[in-house]
Amino acid sequence: MNDMNGSVRIVISDAGYEVPIENRPLWRLLMLCLCMKLLSSDGVGLPTAKIRAGSWMVLRPARWHEYKDFLFGYSDESPKVMPDSNVDRAIQIGIAKGYFSMSNSGRVELMSMGQSLVELAEQADVASAEREFLQDIKSKLTDKVVKFIIWG
Amino acid sequence: MLGLKLLKLSINVITKDKNFSVSIPFNDGLNVIRAENSSGKSTFVNSIAYALGLESILGPGRRAPFPAAITNAIFLNKNKNNNNEQGFFVVGSFVDLEVSNKNGDIVCLRREVKGNPDKITVVSKGEAQDFFLKSAGSVGSAISELGFHNWLAKFIGWNLPMVPRFDGSLAPLYLECIFPLFFIEQKRGWSEIQANAPLYYKIKNLKKTALEFCLGVSDFSRRGDVEKYKVAIRQLEIQWEGIKSSFETLGELNGLLVNFDCDIDSEDYVRLGVLYHVSNGDRVTVGDYLSNLQRRIRKIDQDLQGWSFGHELEAAISERQLISEKIFALSEKNNNIEATSKKINRKLVSLENDLDRYKQLRRLISVGAKNGINIETKNCPVCDTKLQESFTPVEDGYEPMTIDQNIAYLEDQKKFYDAINSRNNEELRAGIVQGRSMQSELERVEVLIGSFKDEERKYLDAFGNEIKEVAELRFLERDFQKIISQRDKLNASAEVIFKEHYLKSESLEIAMKSDLGGVSKEIFDALKSRLIANLQDFSYKNMNIHALDISSQTFRPELDGFDIVADISASDSIRIIWAYTLALMELGVEFDAVKHGGFVVFDEPRQHEASHESFIALLKKSKEKFSEKGQVIIATSIPVADMAVLGLDESCLTVFNDGEYMIQ
Questions:
Q1: What are the residues facing B130 on neighbouring strands?
Q2: Is the CB of A23 less than 8 angstroms away from the CB of B405?
Q3: Inter-chain contact A16–B405, Cβ cutoff 8 Å?
Q4: What is the C-alpha to C-alpha distance for residues B662 and A59, in angstroms, rounded to an integer?
Q5: Is A119 touching B (CB cutoff 8 A)?
Q6: In chain A, which residue's Cα lies nearest the Cα of B389?
Q7: Which top-level group of life is the source organism from (chain A) (predicted)?
């Protein structure tokens, strides 16, 4: 803060640093679980590419309308999905904690812990907007579209 | 002042078996050498020039003036048809000339003909010294201390001036340039005065300069002043014409009449150009025309009723400008606030979204705990190290906020941005209100300006013609002020040129007088009177002898401004050369300032059948005039039988009979 003499007084706080919600591991795990639950046809598992695309979009509510415009054919502007190492970390943690498992075909599948987390969220009315968004795009975010979004 | 006195000339030829020579002493006054043609008479007199290193004055060939008898072989028999004669082959030959100067110093000059002709040995009081001729390297004999002509000039007592060449450089006035005035050789010398002046030195006005030197001019430093002033005057005249031309152009461009009141040669400067405006045949000067214009403008100005709202209109226009600027500034400010508000709103949306989700996360954990489900992860299930509640990588020792802390932090942020937003909105509302107020103020001023403009239109309807006329008259006034300014500048320039021209003309007049006066008036007049007297004595036949004059430009005889030689008979031309050449020596006797060689040489002066009486008069005059000072050396081939008629005593006569060579 500037005082009248132009010098600077430094205040050291004991508080921790702020964390964006998408970087909270639990929130990230919840979003991955929701993706696997709501974007898969069987409600169980997804290829990692679709998890990446789905989680990228669901974590950015400010851009949901743009993503929908593209997926529903109102815009040619494809979502720009970038590599996000936190997805990999979240999958690793999720698998270790028993939320997911990795199938032989390379799909990440929701385990009972994951199912419980999804149900708990429904029960607590948590992430209802995200669930609604994922349900809206489910039919449009096909493997082909995912491939286009990620690899062009 | 006479420079030299010739005492004796001898030509000597050395052969294996016999030496040959001729030696003739010279008296004061007249010396006549009579010999028939081809007996060595011209060779003898030309040897005077040779002994003085001046053979170049004998003609453009610049060769030694000697026949084969002096350089190759001597034949005793003059009959060329006698081919049986064995000649005497020349092994050496030289010329000795004994001379004295005005101080009475006597020297003998020896120059070899066959041998080394490029040096002259000067024997003085028994001591001999060699001097070179022509040039030694880049230094000529007129300049070098060891050069013969340098020595000779000093011996005579002449200081040879440096004079301009055609290329602007300076050169000494060589002795070869001066002596053609005194030495009239047979072949070319009688064609005109100074016939053998050496033009190859490229000295400017050579003949005139030589004459000026002879007639007493010692300072040649002002040479060229006349030309310089003439050039300057010509330049000024060109500038004067240029100004006149500018006047004419000025008049033509503006439809004005131009009169010139003054010429560059006028006695006094009044003014050069006068410009007139002509209308319906009447003409008035541009100055008067301008005065009339200005009177008319004043009259109309007085008649016009002034429009009283001019200042109010100007004030209203200024106010409108001020309000417009304020509105613009306010609009900019409001736009900035709006832009900031948009950004803050976006931030608020993001904050609210984060806050909402954090609250959901807290609820999820809380509901999970109630249901006995632990969904929190304290340690990494993969590596069992402490797992921070954030994927954001930070340095060790820093902890992320807990979920509750983060919610509190987000709520605080939201409050902060809400407060800013609220303040911005307040400010924007105030700005909009202020803008409306300004807009209505602007409208009020616009109405005011409109009403003033209406008033102005009414005024213009009433007085438009007068206002238009005044505007046109003011344009004309400005035009004529410019014209008059240009006129004055041109006249001022003309006055400067006029004065400069006057000064230069005076200087030219003085320079022209002093040009003559390098030659004194007394000497100049004496030259003319001696010339006319001599011509009268020599029975000059041509027209009125009193129309003859000496040119102040060339110092040569002229008749009605023309060189006289061009317009007279051949015999009169010879008489003029006699008369002029003798007149110069008369001046040399009479005036100390006049620099004369001290002798004249006439080789065969009875050219073109100049009458017997004239020739006798020449001899008589030469004998009488120069009985004490000055020498006239005449080589002639008149018949021996006619000699008696000349009435000459033997003391001044050297006669070689027909059939004999002079050198024996």
A1: B121
A2: no
A3: yes
A4: 145
A5: no
A6: A24
A7: Bacteria
Nearest to A126 among B364, B387, B389 (CB): B364
pLDDT tens column, B162-184 = 888 887 678 889 999 999 999 99
Which residues of chain A have a CB within 8 Å of the CB of B361?
21, 24, 26-27, 30, 126
Looking at the complex, does the CB of residue A62 fall below 8 Å from at least one CB of chain B?
yes
Beta bridge partners of B23: B10
Q: pLDDT for B230-255, tens place per residue?
A: 889 999 999 999 999 999 999 999 99
Closest-CA distance, B420 to chain A, in angstroms, reads: 18
User: B426: distance to nearest CA of chain A, Å?
Assistant: 26
Which helix (H) or strand (E) segment holds residue B536: the answer is: helix B521-537
Share of chain B above pLDDT 70, in %: 92
Give the span between the Cα atoms of B485 and B163, in whole angstroms: 49
pLDDT tier at A32 (50, 70, 90 boundaries)? very high
The total of other beta-carbon atoms located within 10 Å of residue A97's CB is 19
Cα–Cα distance measured from residue B2 to residue B8, given in angstroms and rounded to the nearest whole number: 17
Report d(CA A45, CA A66) in Å as an integer. Answer: 26
- Taking the mean position of all CA atoms in its chain, how far away is CA B448? 73
Question: In terms of CA atoms, which chain B residue is nearest residue A84?
Answer: B391
Pull the structure tokens for residue A96: 């270790």
Residues B231 and B492 sit within 8 Å (Cβ to Cβ):
no
Helix (H) or strand (E) holding B32: strand B29-34
- Chain A contact set for B368 (CB, 8 A): 120, 124
Q: What is the DSSP string of B89-116?
A: EEEEEEEEEEEEETT--EEEEEEEEES-
* pLDDT tens figures, B182-236: 999 888 888 888 888 888 888 888 898 899 899 887 666 666 677 788 889 999 9
- By the 10 Å C-beta count (0-12 exposed, 13-18 middle, 19+ buried), B285 is classed as middle
Give the helix ranges, DSSP H, for A1-142.
Answer: 25-39, 48-58, 64-71, 85-97, 112-123, 128-137
Comparing B27-31, B58-62, B620-624, the range with the smallest average pLDDT is B58-62
> Angle at which helices B286-303 and B403-517 pack, to 10 degrees?
140
In eight-state DSSP terms, residue B172 is E
CA distance B623 to B650: 12
Which neighbouring-strand residues pair with B29?
Answer: B631
**Can you name the CATH fold of A22-151?**
Arc Repressor Mutant, subunit A (1.10.10)
- 8 A C-beta contact, residue B59 and residue B196: yes
Closest CA–CA distance from residue A20 to any residue of chain B (Å): 7
CB-based contact A62 B358, cutoff 8 Å:
no
